[in-house]
Design a protein that fits this description.
Helix content: 25-40%
Oligomer: single chain
Strand content: 15-25%
Distance between the termini: 16 Å
Largest sheet: 9 strands, mixed
CATH architecture: 3-Layer(aba) Sandwich
CATH class: Alpha Beta
Low-confidence stretches: none
Length: 299
């Protein structure tokens, strides 16, 4: 199962997948279902396809939510508590063997220092299987989300998608087909995967103007007691997906849209294209990855 977070991310993600298919990158591929409806309360996946005998089901989380009652308020799909409830129901119904969670994110100071020549990894994609969550509700006094994460701040590590996953990807060029984002594009533009890469979950924040404080809180909370793992993205969804999945393993895929504490300059005035292009690169990353590791997946 592939879970793409927002409605402004899924079209770019699917375009990235399609670009690799039309280029002949994804072999043994066939579409079983293609539903182009966009919700609200969408029933079923947006796309079901088969790769080398394996069935892949794509869902946009945003499409599954009911319509927002008050357009002036933050979207209900930004509510961590409601998102967890919805995802638990969906996962229980679908019973996937494995979940790939796709959500655009902000980079961390570590990313920018280690993986870039220009202090930016915008447009790059980070992949991993470790998750951290931070309750940031006090940074958003108007939030309606109160997900209790007291017992799951450090969520269990997920199993990689196949036994030799990380060693295989070290030898693979997953970046073929990526495109530059409009604002502060990362250099080099690449896809990175690591067994100690960690997604930092910014939980219980619904208003975008509150994310600056919440992102900083989450990063500092993570670094306070961590000496081992590498923080590679700040976003709202991967950790919630992992909580909802329980024992089902989850792989996070984080396309980066903005530099650490730079949302206002990197995204705010170019919301559509910055998210669209980064999400496109996530589609490229997942497709290249599935194509490369398909022979190693158990039937």
């Amino acid at each position: 199962m592939v879970l793409v977070n927002k409605s402004f991310e899924y079209p770019g993600y699917r375009a990235g997948v399609e670009s690799r298919i039309t280029s002949g990158k994804l072999k043994d591929y066939s579409v079983l279902v293609r539903d182009t409806s966009v919700g609200p309360q969408k029933q079923g996946p947006s796309c079901v396809y088969q790769v080398a005998g394996h069935i892949i089901r794509e869902f946009c989380i945003n499409y599954l939510f009911p319509a927002d009652e008050d357009p002036a308020k933050p979207s209900v799909s930004s509510n961590s508590e409601k998102k967890l409830e919805l995802l638990k129901t969906l996962i229980e119904k679908e019973k996937p063997d494995y979940i790939i969670s796709v959500s655009t994110g902000e980079s961390t100071p570590f990313d920018q220092d280690k993986y870039s020549d220009n202090n930016s990894v915008n447009g790059c994609v980070f992949i991993g299987t470790r998750f951290f969550a931070c309750d940031c509700s006090e940074d958003d006094p108007d939030t309606e989300s109160h997900l209790d994460i007291a017992n799951c701040k450090w969520t269990p590590e997920s199993k990689p998608i196949c036994e030799k996953f990380y060693s295989l990807l070290e030898k693979a060029d997953l970046s073929e087909g990526m495109i530059k984002v409009p604002n502060s594009p990362g250099s080099p533009l690449d896809i990175y995967a690591g067994d100690i890469f960690t997604s930092l979950g910014v939980i219980n924040v619904m208003n975008y103007e509150c994310y600056s404080k919440a992102d900083q809180r989450t990063y500092l909370e993570f670094t306070k007691n961590n000496w081992v793992y590498i923080p590679v993205s700040l976003e709202t969804t991967h950790a919630v997906v992992k909580m909802a999945a329980g024992e089902i393993p989850v792989l996070f895929v984080s396309p980066i849209v903005d530099r650490y504490e730079s949302f206002s300059t990197d995204v705010e005035d170019s919301w559509g294209n910055q998210n669209l292009f980064s999400s496109y690169n996530a589609g490229v990353a997942v497709t290249n990855m599935l194509s490369y590791i398909a022979p190693y997946l158990k039937e």
